[in-house]
Amino acid sequence: MTSTESDIVDLANHAKTCSWLNGYGAVSELVRLTNARNMLEVGVAYGYHALHILESNPGIEYLGLDPYVSAYDPDDQFSEDVNRLFPNVGMEAETINHSMDRLHSAVVHTLRRKSDSANVVRSDFMNFSKKNRNSLFDLIYIDGNHTEDYVFADTLIASLHIHENGLICGDDIERQSVQAGLAKAAKIIKMEPKLYQHKNGKLIWILHN
């Protein structure tokens, strides 16, 4: 078994203990309700949510953005969890991003095996936007860096890449930083945030053209 294959297996096994999966379903339901043909997810992480979306919505064109950078937010446990899943060991572990490099590779291979219409770009939203100004989506889901400045910027950028009558939504509205960033962005783009609660209890925010 190659190192990549081994990482793919470890990623799949990790899903069995990941509590995030319990909250999935809201975005997939919004995809169906809005008849979205394509979507963008800002913040791919382990790719488990992307897999759920692809399995629940066959034929959806999925694009995920994630810079896969270690220690991007001191208040987020994600980097430490990734380091435990893919430890920095051996002569090849010369960069702080080694664990994230392995995760990115495993996620890309996993999603491509699930769907030919799935793609993951290793980038933040701002840099992607600069290079793909004409890319538009039916639904954009923001679940990346949850600091106030990033939520603010990602929401503003999303407004430039959403189709007419498209839907922008995001996670972790319970966080003060998300509330503040969203409120600032919504004021500028003149869209009123609303809350959507899935039947499993998951609460996400939405902005609709």
Structure description:
This protein has a single domain, classed as 3-Layer(aba) Sandwich (Rossmann fold). Strands 3-2-1-4-5-7-6 form a 7-stranded mixed sheet, with helices on both faces. The protein is globular. With 209 residues, the protein is α/β, with parallel strands linked by helices. The chain is 43% helix and 19% strand.
Number of strands: 7
Name the CATH architecture. 3-Layer(aba) Sandwich
Please, how many helices?
8
Radius of gyration: 17 Å
| Overall tally of domains | 1
For the record, give the distance between the C-alpha atoms at the N and C termini, rounded to a whole number: 48 Å
What does the largest sheet look like?
A: 7 strands, mixed
Task: Output the strand order for the largest sheet.
Answer: 3-2-1-4-5-7-6
Q: Structural class given helices, strands, pairing?
A: alpha/beta
Determine the strand fraction and express it as a percent band: 15-25%
CATH topology: Rossmann fold
Low-pLDDT residue intervals, each spanning 5 or more residues: none
* CATH hierarchy class name: Alpha Beta
Q: Write the element-wise H/E pattern from the N-terminal end onward.
A: HHEHEHHEHEHEHEE
Instruction: Name the overall outline.
Output: globular
CATH homologous superfamily annotation = Vaccinia Virus protein VP39
Task: Tag the structure with descriptive keywords.
single chain; 209 residues; alpha/beta; Rossmann fold; seven-stranded mixed sheet; 8 helices; 7 strands
